[in-house]
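Here is one chain, start to finish.
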Amino acid sequence: MKTILTIGLVLALALSLQASEAEKLFDSKCGACHIKTRPTDRSKMVAPPIMGVLRHVKMTYPTKEKAVSFIKDYVFNPSKDKAVCMPQKIARFGLMPSQKGAVSEAEVEKIASWLYDNFPPKGFRGMGRGMMGKGMNRP
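Its structure:
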């Protein structure tokens, strides 16, 4: 019984450290543009908050595997055709610039997996006025 408990604690600690590493990567690689909280002053935003982004990603790509795959592709090869956010967000913030050279594929994989597991927070309701963005009904 002690062995099982010890293995469980080691696994929990490893997962916690992995999540902590992914969050630190997000903070250093993505956090300058995408905030993790609901904005109090929208005038200072330079990109949509990550909780809203992930809400749209999950509506379009409901499995973790598909969502992570989409994020990995989009981060390096963004385009209006692939965008899952509402058109007015692209009009306001512009298209996300490619992150080629700024982040590695392994880092994006860790960040995307952590994002999927943590965003949007439970009970989150978007602030948009409808689901009119391209790709909202993709498989």
